[in-house]
Amino acid sequence: MANDMGRLRNKMFKSKRHSLKTLTLMLSISLAAAGCTGGGKGGNAEGSPAPADSAKPKERIKMNMFMGDSGLNYPEGVDPSDNPYINIVEDYANVDLQLEVPSAQDFQTKFNLMMSSGKLPDVVHTWFPSEAEKNGDNGAFIDLKEFYDKSPVVQKWVTPEMMELAKSKSGHYYRIPMPAAAGPQGQGVVARYDIVMKYNDGKWPETVEEWIALLRKIKKAEPDSVLMSSMVSGDAGLTYTFLPFFNWYGALPYTTRVQDGKVVSTFTLPEYKAAVEIMKQMYSEGILDKEFATNDAAKYGANFKKNMLFMVNGANQYIPSNRPKFPVPEAEWQFAPALKEYPSVLKDVKYAQTKGQPPITAHGLYISSQTKDKERAWKVIEGFASQQLHDLIFWGKEGEDYTVADGKKVPVDGEGLANTKKYFALHLALLFGFDRSKEPNIAAAEKVLKKDELQRSLDGLNRLGKEAETNGLAVNSFLISSENALLKTPEANKYITQATVEAVMGAITMEQFDQKVQEFGKKYGFIYEEATKYMNDNKQQLKNMGVKEVDW
Q1: How far apart are CA 79 and CA 217, in angstroms?
Q2: Contact 171, 5 (CB under 8 A)
C-alpha cells in the first residue's frame, strides 16, 4: 500500500470545504478569549516530571519556530513561547523556543514574506503544503525520512502510509503531516435543531421544497432573521450557510464529481444551475442576506445571532462537547437527516452524500535547511508528538481535570476542552490531529448535556460516518495536477464565485449564466481533462487507497 501512496502523493484541500479544516470559523466564533498564566521557563509544565519519551539532550540551546494558531487566538496574558503546553516541547528537546505565531487571517501573508526573505527559523509549521514543497525543492527544507524512520515517538501517530501521502512530487519527505484519522468522517447539512423543531411542527423537513417553506415561515414570523448568508474566504466567496441547497443537489461549488468515468466541475452541471435558481429566489425574497457576497468573518459571525438556520460543515466540527454555545446560548446544531426525496434533476443520490476524508490534513511540520542543529530541531518535532503533551492538551492534569477509573479517563466536572483558558492549546496538536479531541469531548459531554441532545449528535455523526464508509474517499484529494492547472485553479474558483453571485443577485439572466458556464469550459476545462486522465491512468492504485468513485 505504501508504494501505491508513493505514486499518488496528494494535493489536498484545494476546495473551500477543506480549507482551514483545521478549526473552522465556527470555533473562532464560539470561543471567547480569556486570561491565563503561563508556566515558568526552564521547568517542566505545571511541575510535571521530566518527559520519558526520549533521552533529553544535555545542553539547552535556543531555537526559533514559525507556526500558525489555526484560528485559535491565545488568551490575554499567554505567551506563545512560555506556557504549560509549549514548555513540554521545550523540555523534551531541551531548548528555549522563540515562537512567531501569526493569526490564521494573517498566516499566509506572513508565511510568504518569511519564505521570500530567505531567512528561515529552525522549525516551520504551515498548512500550505504546495508552497512549502516548492520551497523545499529549492533547498529551503530538509528531507525528514531518515529521522522519521528512527522515531517511534512520531511513528505512534504518523504512519508510514501517511508519510507517503505527504511525500513531494520530487520524492522528498519534507513534511511530517498531521493525521486526520481519529475524528468523525464526512460532512453534511447542519441546522439549528431548536429553530427547525419550533417552526416545522417538531420534525425535520424531508424535501427541498419543505426546507424552502420552512425558511419562508421563519422569515415571516421573525422578519429580522438572517437565515442564509456567506463569507468571503480567499478565492471562495460561497461558503457555509450559502451551501445547503448545493449540497442536496450534489453540486457544491469549487468541487468535482466523477460522472460517466470523467472528472467534471460541479459548476458545469444542471444540478448546480438548479441550486443557483433557488438561491436567486431566496435572495429576491430577502431570505438570503443581501450582503452575502461581501461579508467578512466578523460580519458573518454577527449574523449567527439572527437565526442563521443551516450550513454545510464537516462532522469533525460538531463533536458533542461542553463548549459554550456562542454566540447563541440556546442554539442546538445538529446534522439534518438525509432527505426522503431528492430533486428530480439530481443524476444519482450518491452525489448528494458525503465521502470520507483523507488520512492526513494539509498541516505539517518542516525543518529548515538553515538550522544549525538538525538533530535538535527533530527533537522539537518529537516534542510535539510526546504523550505528555497529548494528555495535557486533550485531558488536562490528572486529579484536577480528570481521574482514572478502570483504566479510563473520566473528566472531573464535564468542562474538559470547554475551558477557554485551555482550549487554545488545541492548535498545538500538530502531530496528533485536532480530531483527536473526540474522546475527551464526548466524555465531558456525557456529564453535562441532556441525554436526548447528546444522542441526536451521536446519531448524526454515525449516519455521516456510514455514508462516508460506503462512498469511500474523494478522488480530488489524491489528484496530482500540472503546474498550469495549479496556477489556474484559483482563477477558476474566482470565476465560479463571480458568475454565481451575478446570477443570484440578478445582475445576469440564467441564459447569460449558461453562457458563463460554456466560457468556463473553454477556459478551464483542461483542468478536469487532466484530472480525468490522471484518474484513469492510476485507477487501480486509487481503488486500493479507498477511492470508490473512480468507478462511478
Answers
A1: 49
A2: no
Quick check: helix, strand or coil at residue 8? coil
Cβ atoms of 425 and 78 within 8 Å: the answer is no
Dihedral over Cα of 511, 512, 518, 524: its sign: negative
CA distance 400 to 413: 9
| Phi, psi values for residue 23, rounded to 5° | -145, 115
pLDDT, average across residues 383-402: 93
Q: What span, in angstroms and rounded, lies between the C-alpha atoms of 61 and 88?
A: 15
Q: What percent of the chain has pLDDT over 70?
A: 88
* Rounded (10°) angle between helices 86-93 and 387-394: 170
As to burial, measured by CB atoms within 10 angstroms (0-12 exposed, 13-18 middle, 19+ buried), residue 399 is exposed
Strand pairing of 310-314 and 95-100? unpaired
Kindly state the average pLDDT of the residues 291-307. 91
What structural domains does the chain harbor?
53-183+359-444 (3.40.190.10), 187-353+473-551 (3.40.190.10)
- Write out the H or E segment, with its range, that includes residue 487: helix 483-504
Show the cell assigned to 470.
460506503
The 3-state secondary structure of 187-252, one letter per residue: EEEEEEHHHHHHHCCCCCCCCHHHHHHHHHHHHHHCCCCCCECCCCECCECCCHHHCHHHHHCCCC
123-126 and 61-66 beta bridge pairing? parallel
pLDDT tens for each residue of 46-84: 333 344 455 666 789 999 999 999 988 899 999 999 999
List own/partner pairs for 231-235 with CB under 8 A and 24 or more apart: 231/25, 231/295, 231/296, 231/297, 231/299, 231/300, 232/293, 232/294, 232/295, 232/296, 233/16, 233/19, 233/20, 233/297, 234/19, 235/490, 235/493, 235/494, 235/497
pTM of the model: 0.79
Reported as a single tens digit per residue, the pLDDT across 169-183 is: 899 999 999 999 888
For residues 240-253, average pLDDT: 97
Give the residue from 227, 153, 67 showing the smallest Cα distance to 386. 153
Q: Provide the grid cell at 431.
A: 502531530
Stretch (H or E) spanning 333: strand 333-335
